[in-house]
């Protein structure tokens, strides 16, 4: 997490020690190396590195992340390009993208990244930033889903599925919207099957420690 | 042997047969699962999407409750709960300064259920309990994402080609087939926001499972089972191909082999009815 920031700080310090800005090479030839300092980076890039703890400047665009990602076909910007665009400071494009909401956090990318960048953690930071900065979200219902899900936990301590889905449906598309695109019928039928199978309950289970849960959520409310 | 048990919300809801089969099998194997009292939701995908403090704080409460009850081992069947709890442990260990209000100094060993069954109970113990070998059942194993990834968090060494569930099922007599999709994503929680993505990803899993020669898919994750079982009828319509692939929890098949009495209750909860397949093999 903070390691990335520290790493940059360390790099900066060593660059300052080496007044000429030249890093030695093993072959004996001096190799000129541009060492980026945190302050040299675009503000957007700096913010993401700080909040996610992921040093996206290590990326050399090998595209291993995008090649392994199962969802690129539905994304508007491929994961490796998200990194490049952050480096270039393209805040509006990145924070308004669908990609940051379609990432399912399967972590295939981060597991395979040769530079140990956990892209899923970066995506979390991007989602949070898109919300706090008030961007028009690329996949608004994903954000509504996360809110409905967490509201349910805050209230009961556990997810109350029927209540959460009802809340999400009303806020995301409205019952009319769902009726007209046919998804109300589809999801309703599935819901009835699940109720018959004993998989969905009609009453929430409220834990005893809801006061402690509210305490955990206070930080979210403060932002 | 007693162990702290965190079922998580899915096992009390859409994954009820996972909880039922897990609890039955553990009992027969002589391991007592002690459910963490008053546990809360781990926050799942939504917690980390919205806020780091919530994502760490929610599982941390469960960890503290397990510790307070004096347990050193905690077993978690749900992949998402397992991974979120491991993330919380990792964050609290490596960045305690960011969570000053959470006083957790370690001491609880968090394990995913397959690792616990393979390592702490052991295949030999299971073999002794087998009453009916499930010979000739052709299956692919599906581990999904979060029991393995990210390996720096989960500690998984076999993250591209996990084999511990394969070994368990092979011990039951099942013919575990090779395929390349053991850890490919099913689409997870996108099922509510972008079901089309789940249809695409899960549909591909069916196609590849059938191509490998599988008659069923066996998983350890309640979200994967949920998508693969509940969406199968819809995906059949979309892909114009009648899939009929029962999706089992590995604990259900353990229970079947061990002669548990409640197997039919579990199988009745599936949307894709597995009983015809099991009857054809004379397991039921």
Question: Describe it for me?
Answer:
The complex is a heterodimer of chains A (223) and B (284). Chain A has 223 residues and is mainly α. Chain A contains 13 helices and two strands; from the N terminus they run αββαααααααααααα. Chain A has two domains: 38-138, Orthogonal Bundle (Fumarate Reductase Iron-sulfur Protein, Chain B, domain 2); 140-222, no CATH class. A two-stranded antiparallel ribbon of chain A has the order 1-2. In chain A, helix 2 (43-52) packs across helix 8 (119-132), helix 9 (140-156) runs antiparallel to helix 10 (161-172) and helix 9 (140-156) runs antiparallel to helix 13 (210-222). Chain A is elongated. Mean pLDDT of chain A is 87; it is low at 9-25. With 284 residues, chain B is α/β, with parallel strands linked by helices. In chain B, 51% of the residues lie in helices and 11% in strands. Chain B has a four-stranded parallel sheet. In chain B, helix 2 crosses helix 14 (250-257) and helix 3 (44-50) crosses helix 4 (52-68). The longest helix of chain B is centred in the first third of the chain and has 17 residues, at 52-68. Chain B is globular, with a radius of gyration of 18 Å. Chains A and B meet through helix 7, helix 8, helix 9, helix 10 and helix 12 of A and helix 3, helix 4, helix 10 and helix 11 of B.
Average of the residue pLDDT scores of chain A: 87
The CATH class label of the largest domain in chain B is Alpha Beta
User: Greatest interface and its residue counts?
Assistant: A-B, 57 and 57 residues
Report the strand count of chain A: 2
User: What order do the helices and strands of chain B follow?
Assistant: EHHEHHEHEHHEHHEHHEHHEHHH
